[in-house]
Amino acid sequence: MSISTVKEYDLAKWHSVASAVQPEVRLFIDGEYVDAIEGGRFETVNPATGEVTSAVAAGTAADVDRAVASAQRAYRSGTWARMSPRERMEVLYRLADLIDARSEELCVLETLDMGKPIADVTTVDLPAVIETFQYFAECIDKVESAVTATEYDVLHYTLRQPLGVVGAISPWNYPLLMAAWKVAPALAAGNSVILKPAEQSPLSCLRLAELFVDAGGPPGVFNVVNGMGETAGKALALHDDVAKITFTGSTEVGKLILTYAGQSNMKHVGLECGGKTPQIFMEDVPDMDGAVAAAFHGIFSNMGEVCNAGSRLLVDRSIHDAFVEQFIADGRDAYVPGNPLDPETNMGPLVTVEAQQRVLRYIEAGKQEGAHLEFGGGTPEGLEAGAYVNPTLFTGVENVMKIAREEIFGPVASVIPVNGVEEAIAVANDTVYGLAAGVWTSNLDTAHRLVREIEAGVIWVNCFDEGDMTQPFGGMKQSGNAKDKCFDSLLSYTELKSAWIRHG
Ligand code: NAD
User: Fold this and answer.
1) Which of 204, 248, 251 to mutate to test the pocket of ligand 1 (most atoms within 8 A of CB)?
2) pTM for the full predicted model
């Protein structure tokens, strides 16, 4: 069932899809589903209800070894790496079509696994996953190398070759999409891939690997090993036959991945990590309605479980009171927690009860440190079985407070008053993170200055969280060292070789 069809489903239809779905739970290695060698399983829980959805094969180091061996064999055989660019493109285009055709199952698995509203999956996640595979398919035969200017009897050219076996470790907040941002460029470049999805959302990515084979991808080129981060993820990152780890997740684990690379084979490491995104609203904000809407959508959408969530709202004192008044008027009821299978719901539960409790602890810390709770701050009535948190707004926040410094990863907005551009820049940059920023001003000079001086990989001016596949997405500082999407992302999965040929 294609994405355009499933977008029209109502609640009853989604409930019947959810009760009929039979997710695959084994690992996918060498083109087939297999059980974990040690036979372990871990449970996935629907965070909206607390019910166990399935028991998934728990990969260990032994399964990672098996998957790496399969990926290495496939790579060396050349069935994928030496396939003509045009043929490789055709496989990825077919994969995009098959993902579309399997939309019904893939969408419902995202919602059952991590609680994301089904409307978000059908309008944001799945269309973006399809587009990601199409975009990187399009890029394949656009990779060029150079012949450089050398002395007369030398020909020097550069060559881009695949790296070999790439390990991809992905998070749960956009399970398929974050995996696609890694797997698609790595495959497009001709590598073999082993994906280790987050243990909170292991189900949808398994299908991706199966569909790759259905699309004509050779067995062994794309493998999925589910399991715990500290076992399967660590084994992958420590593996001597893995040429690169591409990672999206927390800064804490990103640092571990760097150490694993150092402890093993000095593999390439691409990191997309956490954030504490500032949105800066200057006194000459061009459109207060649009700016306030961007502020609450920027922190409440996807339950605030977004790496670039605009969690710090830096508001110039001259417009502070009007901004807060309008945020409360427009934002307090804009997101209503509910059943994520209902297409009318725009806020689901957090991913797990542990995540819910963590966010509630941050809210308590905010109160204790003296921030003013304007609304929210607890859990919604009638939804006690799920891991829900109400959309929450703090004002009077200072940038030294815990809620302003640490990544909460929940629907908690903090308004920090600032005086003018200088202070806005200083506060925006006073963080270990540097993923993204929003800037709202009518003054072109101010806009350019903020773009140059804010330490973040992505800056939006008079808009927030927009972009397309050409946009490099990734951070600076402790938000990471890599860029997803964009043509450069594909190049980051290649080795740049130099051939210096002396001739007569
Ligand atoms: P996480 O770091 O807990 O887990 C991410 C992945 O790493 C999971 O697959 C997990 O199993 C694995 N892992 C955990 N410990 C490991 C270890 N010791 N060795 C190897 N792998 C290990 O992050 P999460 O909770 O799944 O995701 C939320 C985080 O991801 C947030 O910090 C968010 O900001 C970040 N994120 C960043 C981006 C970006 O583009 N910068 C995008 C989405 C999410």
Assistant:
1) 248
2) 0.98
